[in-house]
Amino acid sequence: MIRRLFHPLDRYVFAEFSKIFAATALGFPILVIVIDLTDNLDKYLSRNLSRGDIALSYVYSLPESMYMVLPAAVLFATVFTIGALTRHSEITAAKASGISFYRISVPIYAASVIAAALALVLSELAPLGNRRSMELRDEVMYTTGTERFNFAFASEAGRVYKVQQLQVATGSIEALEIERRGRAGDSTYPTWLATASRARYDRDRGWLLLGGTMHVMTDQRPNLAVTFDSLRDRHFRETPVQLMASPKAPQDMRYAELGRYIRALERSGSDVNGIKVERALKIAVPITCIIIAIFGAPLATSTQRGGAAWGIGLSLAVTVTFLVFIQLTKAIGGENVMNPDLAAWLPNTLFGLGGLVLLARVRT
Q1: Which of 119, 73, 105, 60 is nearest to 255 (CA)?
Q2: Rg of the chain over CA atoms, in angstroms?
Q3: Which of these, 51, 97, 336, 355, is most buried using a 10 Å CB contact count?
Q4: What single-letter DSSP state applies at residue 47?
Q5: Hey, which residues does 186 pair with through a beta bridge?
Q6: DSSP letter assigned to residue 225
């Protein structure tokens, strides 16, 4: 089927792109693993971690590393593929045969779409992998501190927890609020909000909420309020020590989970502009794979004699410039100078327009 859809030249270009893309997408994460292992092996061994758990923790961390490097991998593959075709006069021969540069680039753009889809998948797998990696490395056990105040977190069961005060020594919480948002139009899965004056942790049975009220809110019926002396939430499984861990970073939450976390912070009056930018980037960064291919393909034809050093230098320069743009727009969006979603998509917009200008100037 693939042979019928693509001409031999398409398959050749696609194969050359894929080899460089795979080498970069896997090579950089492996290099990061080697560096991190060299720096932290003594620390992990001091925790009496087995070599198998250490190795497996790095396997679980691969989705995050690959997700971050995919746009750069697309750029490297695009620049080196087009650069090699240019240096070997293969593009000139194709043009002499009536094949335009735009047509030659189609397999690269198709591959960049596949890379974008892969990045979207990895962005959802990375938080799960990071959590499992931290468990294997016993990171939570080595978190210091005995008290924590005014924090919120989102659970995987669709619940958002807001805690006023946590005391690890006594295994207790003062002023706890739990919200689970329902499904619109589904009366069997309503939104409810539970507040408790305190909660107590039991090693065998988990958290017990004491002295509170539960509000059940539906679109079709009047709201229902029920007071309780005690209530147990089976989905509240985190121990006091685990709750002492640093708040999850945006990259450690999936897209929907991050949305719930933002809504929880908004209700508490917190500034969430920076986190909104991070959420938008979870979609914008994968799309960058396509934008960077559009930008990189015509740019790679700007020299006829550039070698590998030129390709590496060009790729690194564009990558660094793009990363600087992202950090700049994150700061702008976080300070509410610009709409957070617009700030997240601004680098893609600028590079996309630049790519279209370069494409229009390419000799076809």
Answers
A1: 119
A2: 26
A3: 355
A4: T
A5: none
A6: E
Residues 6+ apart with CB under 8 A from 195: 175, 176, 177, 178, 212, 213
Amino acid identity, residue 127?
P
Rounded Cα distance between 105 and 125, Å, is 30
- DSSP-derived letter for residue 337 is S
Q: Rounded to two decimals, what is the model's pTM? A: 0.71
Q: Compute the half-sphere exposure of residue 347: CA atoms within 13 Å on the CB side of its CA.
A: 31
Q: How far apart are CA 203 and CA 222, in angstroms?
A: 38
Residue with tokens 């893609």: 348
Please say whether the beta carbons of 64 and 129 come within 8 A. yes
Mean pLDDT of 32-52: 87
Cα separation, 311 vs 292, whole angstroms: 15
DSSP per residue, 25-94: HHHHHHHHHHHHHHHHHHHHHHTT--HHHHHHHHHHHHHHHHHHHHHHHHHHHHHHHHHHHHHTTHHHHH
On the question of pLDDT at 144 being above 60, the answer is no
CB count, 10 Å around CB of 91?
A: 21
- Is the pLDDT confidence value at 228 over 60? yes
- Provide the terminal-to-terminal Cα distance of the chain, rounded to the nearest Å: 29
Per-residue pLDDT tens over the stretch 171-201: 999 999 998 877 766 667 788 889 999 999 9
- β-pair type (147-154, 191-202): unpaired
Mean pLDDT on 22-46: 89
Question: Which tokens is 80 given?
Answer: 């080196």
- Domain residue extents for the chain: 2-138+275-361, 144-244
In the predicted model, is pLDDT for residue 166 greater than 70?
yes
Residue 243 has pLDDT above 90, yes or no: no
Separation in Å, CA 249 to CA 36, 55, 253: 20, 23, 7
